[in-house]
Amino acid sequence: MIPLINKFKGCDKENPFKDSQAKNFSNKKLMTEFCPTSFFWSLFNDQHEVLVGTRGSGKTILLRMMQYSLLRHIIHPEAKRIVSSRRYFALYVPTNIEFLRTINPSDLSYKSRTEFFQFGFNCFLAQTFLTEIYSVLQDIRTDFIEQSKLELSLAKKISRMWFPDMQPCATFKELKFQLGSMYHNFNFHKETDLSSVPLVFSKPIGTPIQSVSGHIYQDLEMEEEPKWLLCIDEADFLDEDHLKCINTLFRTYSQNIVIKMATLPFRHITRETSIEGEYAEPNGNDFNYRSIAFQPDGEDFKKITNQLCENRINKVLTGEVLTGVSLEGLIGFEGGDHLIDYYKKEIDNTEITREEIELGIVNQFSEKRKSQALKNGIGSGKNLKPVYNKFAPIYFLREMYKKNSIGANVAGFYAGPNMIRKVSEGNPRIFLQIMNQIFEEGMKTRLTPKKQTQILQKYANQHVEITERLPERGKDLAEILEKICSYIKQRTHNDALSDVGNDFLLEENEINNKQLVKALELGCAYSRLKVDENSLISEISTKTVFTLSNLYALMYWIPMRNGGNTLIWNKEKSQQVNVKSYKLDNLQTSFKFE
Amino acid sequence: MNISINTEIKSDLADVSLFICAVGFEERSIYHFKKLINENKITKTDILCFSFNDFIDEISVKNKDILREFGVELIDVSKNEKDEIIDEIKKRIESLRCNLDSLNIHIDYSSMPRNWYCNIFLSLINILGENDKVFYWYSHGDYSSNLEHCSTAGTDDITVFAGKASINPLKRSHIFGIGFDRIKTDAIRTILDPSTLVICYTYPEDKPDMNSHLVEEHKYLFDSAALSFSLPIEDYSFMVNRLTDIALDLKDSGDVILVPDGPKPLILACSIIPILLKKEGIIAMHIQSHSNFKPENIKATGKISGFSVTRN
């Protein structure tokens, strides 16, 4: 099969994979790009939830798409059910930093900070609320006159609640103007309290919605008062005082307000509430943490990446619409798109047998392991799992690295749809950024496995290079990862073939090293490291298994798999028995094996 | 208040009512002062000089000694105490007003922290008399050869200097002013995660190689930018006008967030755009020095650029 990308050779159109951020996407583009998953549908529930995901993992698109105004355009039975039941209404509130710093200038007292935050947040929320219920209104009243009558009635009710001292508004537009005017005329630098604003906006977040919800739901033809899902995006910018306001809502009776808050890993920095000594409890007590990470090899990520390819490709096509586009169809693949297929292609021997590969593996074993494997018999059933299946990926990697290290050789090993998804780490933005480079090259030349390897290596190189420039602890993180990767690389390629992995643990006394832990948390937020889900949503501990990202693995030619022997990051106990000491330049760091 | 900003070419001042400067850990901090005092353009009584009490090193001690030798009285201020210096300046201006109908205030902001010179600008436009003129002078420094001073940034370092964010903007565009501190710029970029990124930068016209140096230094940033443009550091009013045009263009589709770094004239120009335009949704953010900030001795190149501000 000829890869679809060949069709674009010499194409002078703009690379369709250039955009990779949902923040500025128009609603239309957002709807085209969106690919609903079971996780998405599961967000429509009554539980407060903190959604944890790395930068670019798709938090924004999830939260934006939950809005009724967008959801009603999605052709999907579940969307239809949620829209027609009118039981859940999502209100999207991105807490971007310029907004937060506007409503909370520096030097404010704790009291003012909290009050002004609640006020600013409520203004934003009220605007979104009006947009959403206007969509409902349009759905239930198709006749213009009837629509206007209902709008008038609702606008009056709402303005009486929100602006009791003013002439009631006749339209939502007027209400929005009132809101804008109230916000615009409030000087966050000079005011000391909220006495100049209507009471409902100075109360805890969500109050403006709660104040009107019970009075309007029947007009909107709802059987019961709905749940208002406050979708707070970019919550990683919220500081402790802001989070306390939200945690208070988790902890107390929230009267039909349900929070869905998206943040980076380890950025829900406090569970304190505004009431001293009261904490919001996770695990379904007051709220739940949920990881939004996709498995790189999972069906959901496959579906998403294929849909992205289809949408983006159709952007550059004129006069035809292609359906059923997949990443596989777009760039093509070798054999079954497994590592072995690219290995075979690179050694130019598609007929190589399991026995030949197994012999190669065994010959690179330590003497002890070799004699056991030979005793079992090359190609035997006994060797299949513990020798062939287990060690073939590392063997291929070693062989390919050797090939790649000769002069200017490029071993076309890192190629194919599976590999692209794997190094994307289930992160749609990383996927789009890689595809941007793949497509760019695809417009110029044939995307052979060697070419793809070069592209992925270039991308991985950028990814690794930028690590030291990540915020705050970037330099520490870059240093730690460089040392760990160099060590694993040495273990992978210089010693006898063994069960090497890309994961490590922290020694007990390192858990108290705040600088180190912060650096590793940063790595998790920006897709340099992965941790098990439990650690991701709670905290780093000695049980936390850190896995190097596949882009780091690619860059350093180390296996993209967890090893049987987990490295332990340890600076103190290098004298212990079984400790494999590895002196590192400055940190005097050592590793030991479990 | 409407103001007019004009590029000033001559730095050999005449008729100085007040010369305001800051002395600290950079050799350049006394360059302009020395030039003027040696040329008898100013006397010790015309000078209002602030010195940092946060970063005291060998150079700052030496700089202070030189000023004291000339009989200049120094006011020790902490880097974060902008209100204190604004109060001092206002007090001094008020006392000058008793005797003078018009004031020519000259400010050497070459070695001031950004929260000083930007706030000085902000304060002075509000007390500017009809016949007053405020000059801002910048002694160019050589940064390109020393990247060791590069710091980083965190979310807590970000503040809004001017402007007000809209509620629920349609779109957001970020204008990044950049210099040679790639680590800081990339950290800010990672935090702010801009989707429509515009880059502006500036370099002296006699050093065109700095253009390619900057582009090379920020290769990935330039690759991801929707637009990039350079500005002539010597022509301040052009800088401001160009930034104003770009901000207004971008404002049509949503909020515009200016995030300046790089040379001080660029930082100041970006910072004052929301003040000049007075539109909700045009915001200038400041990135404070991170906790790992290390003072660096920047030497003057000998070139001085400036601009003046008058009431319209």
Automatic annotation (TrEMBL), chain A:
Q: Highest taxon of the source?
A: Bacteria
Q: What is this protein called?
A: Uncharacterized protein
Organism from which the protein derives: Plebeiibacterium sediminum
UniProtKB/TrEMBL annotation, chain B:
Residues in a coiled coil are: 79-106
- Keywords tagged on the record: Coiled coil
Domain of life, source organism: Bacteria
User: Is Coiled coil tagged as a keyword?
Assistant: yes
What this protein is called in its record is Uncharacterized protein
Origin organism lineage: Bacteria, Pseudomonadati, Bacteroidota, Bacteroidia, Marinilabiliales
